[in-house]
Amino acid sequence: MNKVILMGRLTRDPEVRYTQTSNTLVASFSLAVNRRFVRQGEERQADFINIVAWGKTGEFCSKYFKKGQQVGVIGRIQTRTWDDEQGQKHYVTEVIAEETYFADSKRDGDMGTANFDATFGAMPSSNEGSDFEISSGDDLPF
Predict the structure, then answer these.
(1) Which of 9, 55, 93, 105 could form a disulfide with 115, with the two C-beta atoms 3.0–4.6 Å apart?
(2) Which of 71, 47, 40 is nearest to 57 (CA)?
(3) Domain annotation covers residue 121
(4) What is the tens place of the pLDDT at every residue in 12-57?
């Protein structure tokens, strides 16, 4: 099985190009994905992962994704190789996006202060800013 789930911040706006043969849209961007653990005395490390989105998914990314936004990507890892003009072989590993999502909090105007845990959308424990409240079970209808 080849399945990747990532959440991170865009390091740049998606770059759009079209294939020569079928004129299919391809969007490319990079995500800075924080590593889960931090070594004592060091700053948090991030991995920079190249993402490629084709067709409608690529169109969505090119329209709505901007540098600095936190997004979620579900896809698969793909490797490819090619030879350049000097005959040197190049290798690249990238994630082919199959699903893409916004991951920033809608309440936050600036994209740098998402109001949820970055370990995949765990909601905050407080009800701050929410009109929804659960009272004691005594007055629930079921």
Answers:
(1) 105
(2) 71
(3) no
(4) 999 999 999 999 999 999 999 999 888 888 888 999 999 999 999 9
For residue 30, CA distances in Å to 27, 35, 79, 89, 108 come to 10, 15, 16, 22, 23
Q: How many distinct structural domains can be found in the chain?
A: 1
H/E stretch holding 59: helix 55-64
In a domain, 6, yes or no: yes
pLDDT at 9 over 50: yes
* Residue 141 domain flag: no
Structural domain span for residue 69 = 1-36+45-108
**Hunting for tokens 């706006």 — which residue is that?**
13
Task: Confirm whether 133 is domain-assigned.
Answer: no
In this prediction, residue 105 carries a pLDDT of: 74
